Structure formats: structure tokens, C-alpha cells
Amino acid sequence: MDDFLVRALLAGLGVAVVAGPFGCFVVWRRMAYFGETLAHTALFGVALGVLLEVDLIVGMIAAVALGALLLGFAQRDKRLGSDAILGILASLTLAGGVIAVSLAGTVRIDLFAFLFGDILAVRASDLYAIWGAAGAALAALVWLWRPMLSATLNDELARIDGVRVDAVNLLLMLLLALVIAVAGRMVGILLVVALLVIPAAAARRFARTPEQMALGAAAAGAVAVAAGLWGSFRWDTPTGPSMVVAAGLVCLLAWIVPRRRAA
Amino acid sequence: MNVAQPVLVAAHGVSLAPGGTPILERVDIAVHAGELVSLIGPNGSGKTTLVRTLLGFATPDSGRVERRPGLRIGYVPQRLQIDRAMPLTAERFLGLAPRGTPAARRAAMAELGIAHVAGRAVQDLSGGEFQRLLLARALLAEPELLVMDEPAQGIDVVGQAELYHWIAELRARRGCGVLLVSHDLHLVMAATDKVVCLNRHVCCTGHPEAVARHPEYIALFGPASREFAVYAHKHDHVHDVAGHVHADHDHPHKHDHAH
After folding, report:
1. How does pLDDT run along chain A (263 residues), one tens digit per residue?
2. B79 to chain A: which residues are within 8 Å by CB?
3. How far does the CA of residue B170 sit from the closest CA of chain A (Å)?
4. A25: nearest CA partner in chain B
5. B212 in the same domain as B148
6. Interface probe, candidates A153, A163, A165, chain B, greatest B C-beta count within 10 A
7. The domain containing residue B115 runs over which residues?
8. DSSP symbols for B150-184
């Protein structure tokens, strides 16, 4: 197996194991569209990274984190439905991001690679960044698992239990931004939500507890990443989209296999 | 009862008018240790807002909320919908409470008669089972104050009687104060020490029988409410003597109206 494939696989697995559990929160909190919009803001980060001459992934993380704060703020106004606000912003962030990238310098940037992923170009140094970010996000998730779950279930019950709900929600949002930026760099800004939501959706079928769903999502994501990479190599198809299609197949399979009824 | 007992939670002259619309006007209420207080009032009378203020979820525009420092509260919110997207068994739901060992969780479920649903998804529980699960969760906090907002909502009459029976039992056994919110008049009265009738301001307060005869209470709920209140009191009496809620009549509702 070629080195670049091994690196791509390791990168993909790093992304999958963290995207699965966070994807569960996206599903539980009905934030899929929110995540989509958030992913689009990463393009501003690409432009920012070029202008400031910092690593593009750093620019993406900063832009998505800022986007998360602004989006959270925009959603407080209830006069427009949440989906309407996101419908406006999802398009605006994408359009604005593409313009920002083109203004920042078209010569040096392959826009297609950012929109649909470029996992085969992963360098060894990227792997440390990916596994570092994934490890940090997972550690925070494990550490704050119960409060995050409580805050997701019911705001008031969590407060009575002494959970600092606002702080927990903010942290969850920022961690999600980190995951989206890193995963978006790998599989593409337009496809990253699929890697969050689809494995979680697949895991829902067999899970009886939130923990089972989170672990199942990580596993389903890992299978999808590996299968997608293999398929991409085998049939010479684009890698990011192949991983998403593989995730879709895993999900489909999870929901059509007959389930023995528990007694 | 229990006037000498310490105050667990109280509002003193609390007013709240979010966006300029008054919801609470100079409301006074206190729950003492071991006391069962029923907060009643029609829909939109500010009951839930008052509870949220007492619990610290809302800040009054004027007046003062007093909570005993370090007070352990068990809370059963008015509406709790758990999205089907989250797989969650009853047992795991209880495990999300900050206190409680596995043994304590099993004991709480057994105490409330829901041990048999431990492995079932919370979304598949009946209204009564889910309310008892919420109550079990509240009990795991070993509360000194139990706050329940419309606990009988969406439960049939038999389930309601059972629920109130549990609440009275638990109070007797654990000695915690209870604040019970309801627009549901006839059952709430039974085990109550004190009724506070709210319609933005406190209309009247006192022993159930006194409140039932109060002109403002009757004006608020209509003349029929008196019969309900009296019925509830008799019902309580039957309960005490016979030791079982519906022990000796098939149609308890009609029973007292006939007198």
C-alpha cells in the first residue's frame, strides 16, 4: 500500500472517531443545518489564512469558531424561524467565502480541493494536527459527557442539577467548530456534515443508550472512511465524495437489516 | 402547619413584567420544611413563571426570592419531551442525575413501582410511568424540596390518583417540603397543607377549605369549583379510612355531586 494511502486512512480514521460522537449531538440537538452553515464559514478561514500567511487549517478553525458564536447569537432572535435564518446564512457564507477566497488570491488555492476534500494530499505533519485536535476534542467530550448530555436533554433539569448550561453549550459549540474545521479540511467543506450526521444516523438504529450511539457512530464512520478510501482507489473516484457515499451505504445497511425483536 | 419550620424557598413581593406585560404582581409565597403547598390558578396566571423565579431560572423585576443556601431541590418540569433521536432507557435516564448509585437508582424505581420499565426506552413509557420516572429522578437528589409543575398533566384519572398518592407517601417518608403546581382542582386539595391561589397576584391563601370558600377563588374558578374542593376533601377522608383510593365506589366522581 502506498504511503499517501496510509496517511489518508489514518487521517480519515482520526476524523471519523471524533466526528461520530459529535455528530450524535448534532442529531440530538437538530443542528444538521446549523453545522452545514458553520462548515461554509470555513472558506473565510481559508482566505484569512492566505492573507495572514498562517496555516490554512488554523484560519479555518478560527473562522468556524467565530461563525459558531455569531450564528448562536443570530438564532436568539425568534422572529425568524431557525431554519429561515440558517437558510439565509448557509448561502451567504458559501457565496461570501468563495468571493473571499478568490480575492485572497486564486493562484495559490485550489477551491475544488476545499469544497470537496483533499485527503490524499495529507502530509505527515497534518496527521499530528488531526489526531491532536481529534484527541483534544474527544477528551473534552468524555470529560463533559454527562453535563453535555444533561444540557441536551433539558435545560432546566440540567440547571437544577448544577450544570452550568450556558458554559457547557458554548464549549460544545466551539468543539463542534473545531471538529468541523478539521474534518472539513479532509473531506471537503460541502461534505463534512455528512460525515457528522450519517454515521450517527446509522448508529441510532441499534443503540439503546446515548453512549452506544456515540461509539456506534465512531465505528460506522471509521468503516465508511476505510471503505470510501478503498473504493476511491479501486475505481479511481474522488476520495471525499466516495467516503460520503460509503457512509450512506453503511447507514442504509444499518436500517434495512431486519432486527430481532427483544423479548 | 409547620409555621415554626424553617423556610426552604420564598418569594417576597415579587413582580415580573417581561416586555412590559405584567405576569406576576407583588407575589408572596413560602414553602417551609416538610410542608405541602399547592399553587393553583387558571392557565396564564403566572404559576410556571413563579416556579421558575423561585428556582432561579428567571429574575424578578422587583421583590426578593429567598432560597435556603445549599438547598437540595428535586424538580419535575411541566413538559419534558425527549426527542426520539436520542436512544435512552429509563435506567440510563436516571443515571444522568448527578447523585445516586446504581443501587439507589434501582431502589428509586422500585419505590415508585416502575422497576419493570428500567430497560425500556423513555419515549415508549406511558404518561404515568414517565411522570414517576421524573419523580424518581428528582428523588435521587435526596431533595429537601420537591417542586412539581403540573405533574398530573396528560395522565388519566386513575394515574393521577396514584401519582398524588405517591407524592403524599414520599413526603411522609422523607419529610421533604413539596411545592405542587396545578390547575387541576379536585385532586390537588387532598393532602395539601396550604393552598396559594394565583392569578398574577395572590388571590387568597390558606387551608384548602378556607380557600375553597374564598369569594375570589370562587370568582376565578366558578361555583362548581367549590363542589370539587369539597369532593376532594371527602375523598381524602375515604382514603384515610379505607386505606385505598377507590375502595368503595365505582363512580367516585358522581358520588359526591349526588349529595
Report:
1. 578 889 999 999 999 999 999 999 999 999 999 899 999 999 888 888 888 888 888 888 999 999 888 887 777 776 777 788 888 888 988 998 888 888 887 566 788 888 898 888 888 888 998 899 999 999 999 999 999 999 999 988 999 988 999 999 999 999 999 999 999 988 899 999 999 999 999 999 999 999 999 999 999 999 999 999 999 999 999 999 999 999 999 999 999 988 765 44
2. none
3. 20
4. B86
5. yes
6. A153
7. 80-142
8. STTTT--HHHHHHHHHHHHHHHHHH--EEEEEES-
User: Which of A30, A144, A161, A168 is most worth mutating to test chain B (most B CB atoms within 10 A of its CB)?
Assistant: A161
Instruction: Mark whether B181 and B158 lie in a shared domain.
Output: yes
**Cβ within 8 Å of residue A202, ≥6 positions away:** A216, A217, A220, A247, A250, A251, A253, A254, A255
The total of structural domains in chain B comes to 2
ipTM: 0.84
C-alpha cell at B46: 403566572
In the numeric block, which cell numbers belong to residue B19? 416586555
Nearest by CB to residue A210, choosing from B56, B74, B87, is B87
Give the integer Cα–Cα distance in Å for B160 and B131. 10
**Residues of chain B found within 8 Å of residue A213, distances taken between Cβ atoms:** 86-87
A156, three cell numbers: 432546566
Adjacent-strand bridge partners of B75: B147
Q: What are phi and psi of A208, to 5 degrees?
A: -110, -15
Fold (CATH) for A3-193? ABC transporter involved in vitamin B12 uptake, BtuC (1.10.3470)
The shortest CB-CB distance from A160 to any of B55, B80, B121 is to B55
Rg (C-alpha) for chain B, rounded Å, is 18
Tell me how far apart the alpha carbons of residues A12 and A216 are, in angstroms, rounded to a whole number. Answer: 16
Amino acid at B90: A
CA B137 to chain A, closest CA, distance in angstroms equals: 10
CA A248/CA A19 separation, integer angstroms? 15
B137 shares a domain with B104: yes
- How close does chain B come to A33, measured CA to CA in Å? 16
| CA-based nearest distance B87→chain A, Å | 5
Q: Is B9 in the same domain as B125?
A: no
Residues 6+ apart with CB under 8 A from A82: A34, A75
